[in-house]
Amino acid sequence: MATTKLDVTQEIKLDHDNVRDLWSRFQAATAREEKANIANTLIREMAIHGDAEEISIYNDYSKLGLPGTAEHNKEEHAEIKKLVYEADSASTKSPDYHEVLREAVLAFITHATEEETDQFPIILAKLTPDENDRLARDFLRARKMVPTRPHPAAPQTGGVAQKAAGALGSVHDKVVETLGGREFVELKFQHPENF
Which of 37, 162, 176, 190 gives the lowest tally of CB atoms within 10 Å of its CB? Predict the structure, then answer.
């Protein structure tokens, strides 16, 4: 049975596109509850995405001809995490909530565009189809292991410390989301379920 080869850049871009779509939906929404549910989903998706990249693909960046780029991306992620944390901590009923969330989303989208434009072509030129598939699957597995809310003080090493903190954070986040009654909206774009 042949398995379809995955493309890590497409899986990462799928996350980027979900954030772009959610932001458009947030801006178009008029009901407070709908806006809150979209905001919860935006925060979750931005948090998952950043940590998943850090513990998966960024570990291969130096081998892919991108020396220093993982560190640069992690610095940008640290700033994005702070902004996403501020949005996560703010009340969606606050009059300035839209601006707080907008700042986080625009920082994420700016970073995403840089990855897509400057880094993806280099990555794709260096990877064999098997390596690309392996990295895509690593990224998708990482998405299931990381926290669903921002933790800007957590390690960003991409190694064991970040994975361990992520596992604990993930459990904590599930409890907070459940007890807090957070609701989410469906994502427009979906990763493969069985990989």
Answer: 190
Please state, in angstroms and rounded to a whole number, the distance separating the CA atoms of residues 186 and 9. 22
Check residue 143 and give its pLDDT: 96
Task: Phi first, then psi: give them for residue 2, nearest 5 degrees.
Answer: -80, 140
Can you say whether residue 169 is alpha, beta or left, with left for phi > 0 and alpha for psi between -120 and 50 degrees?
alpha
Q: Which mean pLDDT values do the consecutive 10-residue runs of the chain (195 residues) have?
A: 85 98 98 96 96 94 90 94 95 94 98 97 96 97 91 56 47 53 92 89
Q: Residue 70 is encoded by which pair of tokens?
A: 């993982």
Global pTM value:
0.87
DSSP string over 151-188: -TTS--SSSHHHHHHHHHHHHHHHHHHHHTT------S
Distances, alpha carbon 142 to alpha carbons 18, 49, 166, 167, in Å:
17, 9, 10, 10
Q: Structural domain boundaries of the chain? A: 8-179
Q: Checking phi first, is residue 158 left (phi over 0); if not, alpha (psi -120 to 50) or beta?
A: left
Q: Which CATH number applies to 8-179?
A: 1.20.120
Task: Determine contact, residues 58/24, Cβ cutoff 8 Å.
Answer: no
Tokens of 40: 């919860």
**Nearest residue to 53 via CA among 71, 31, 28, 26:** 71
